[in-house]
Design goal:
The protein is α+β, with helices and mostly antiparallel strands. It folds into two domains: 174 residues, Ribosomal Protein S5, domain 2 (2-Layer Sandwich), CATH 3.30.230; 125 residues, 2-Layer Sandwich (Alpha-Beta Plaits). Helices cover 40% and strands 26% of the residues. The protein is built from nine helices and twelve strands. The strands form two sheets. Strands 1, 2, 3, 4, 5, 6, 7 and 12 form an eight-stranded mixed beta sheet that branches. A four-stranded antiparallel beta sheet has the order 9-10-8-11. Strand 3, helix 1 and strand 4 form a beta-alpha-beta unit. Helix 1 packs parallel to helix 2 and helix 3 packs antiparallel against helix 4. The protein is globular. It binds (3R)-3-hydroxy-3-methyl-5-(phosphonooxy)pentanoic acid (PMV). The site of (3R)-3-hydroxy-3-methyl-5-(phosphonooxy)pentanoic acid (PMV) has 14 residues, from helix 4 and helix 5.
């Protein structure tokens, strides 16, 4: 049994989503593969799992409710802490294959259980990553239902609605700063900022407004406006303290050849998402500065069983 799961990029609303504001994310065509086969004992890549390295897989196995022992093989080219949702991709892939083995494959259940796994391992999380890579395409995650939600997720009395948005058939460039930010620490950093500054919550609400405003432009494929909102969202993320010298440098360097660019994910390094105007020029600039990048398109399928 093999699952293929995309990675994700947050277009708008990271961090603000932790405070109940909407976030918009898309699944991207970078994939992890998870293969599960029956085994005499519980193994990861043929060896007993290491709690330090395999926390998500161990938790996913526990929470899947599968009784049989299995060997779980992971193939992922996504680097951890890059802001592309590598842990969510592997978690969703693992849950998907284990549920398929149980004969209970449903995207709603995969999204819910995978969120439980991330929550249990990280202690704090929103369902953005796990829901996006399960559903595929563009999604909005918010506390108020938008359109007709594909599923709802509840945790500790908080309810999130996950809805699909129209696909924007568009290439993006994701540049990796090479600096690893810790999502947990950055979420804490924003919390400290918001608690200490009277205008902290205004910034959070402002980001939420940008997410809502972007829906119209995404639907109209108005690249100028989408780029403008990405730039504005990035300024607000910088005020919240999740910017980094390296990501700011990348964003500045591609400014003249892109509609917009911003940090994607938790920040503190990590990745930058660029909406290119002149793709060749952006690539040339990144290559000259030896910045690793991916050309990505939206993945429309989300998690799939390929065998
Ligand atoms: O680091 P990532 O890509 O998993 O993004 C985290 C997004 C946050 O909004 C900062 C946290 C969350 O759980 O939503």
């Amino acid at each position: 049994m093999i699952s293929r799961t995309p990675a994700k990029a947050i277009l708008f609303g990271e961090h603000a989503v932790v405070y109940g504001e909407p976030a918009i994310a898309m699944a991207i065509d970078l994939y992890s593969h998870v293969e599960v086969s029956k085994s005499e004992e519980f193994l990861v890549d043929g060896s007993p799992p290491e709690p330090r390295y395999h926390s998500y897989i161990i938790k996913a196995y526990e929470m899947s409710g599968l009784k049989e022992k299995v060997n779980i093989k992971i193939r992922s080219h996504l680097s951890a802490s890059s802001g592309l949702g590598s842990s969510a991709s592997v978690t969703v892939g693992t849950i998907s294959t284990l549920f398929a083995l149980k004969g209970e494959w449903s995207k709603t259940e995969i999204a819910k259980t995978s969120f439980d796994v991330e929550y249990a391992v990280q202690g704090r999380a929103s369902p953005v990553d796990t829901s996006t890579v399960t559903a595929g395409g563009f999604v909005i995650v918010s506390r108020e239902s938008y359109g007709k939600p594909i599923w709802e997720i509840e945790k500790n009395g908080i309810k999130w609605y996950v809805s699909s948005l129209k696909n924007l058939n568009q290439e993006f460039i994701i540049a990796n700063s090479g600096v690893r930010g810790s999502t947990g620490n950055l979420v804490q950093k924003v919390y400290n900022f918001v608690s200490k500054n009277s205008f902290g919550m205004d910034i959070i609400r402002e980001i939420g407004k940008i997410s809502m405003e972007s829906i119209k432009y995404l639907e109209e494929r108005n690249l100028e406006k989408i780029g403008e909102l990405m730039n504005r969202n990035n300024k607000l993320l910088t005020i919240l303290g999740v910017g980094h010298e390296k990501t700011s440098k990348i964003i500045d360097s591609v400014k003249d050849f892109s509609y917009g660019a911003k940090i994607t994910g938790a920040g503190g390094g990590g990745s930058v998402i660029i909406l290119p105007k002149n793709e060749e020029k952006v690539k040339e600039i990144l290559e000259r500065s030896k910045i690793k990048y991916y050309l990505v398109r939206p993945d429309l399928n989300g998690v799939v069983l390929i065998n």
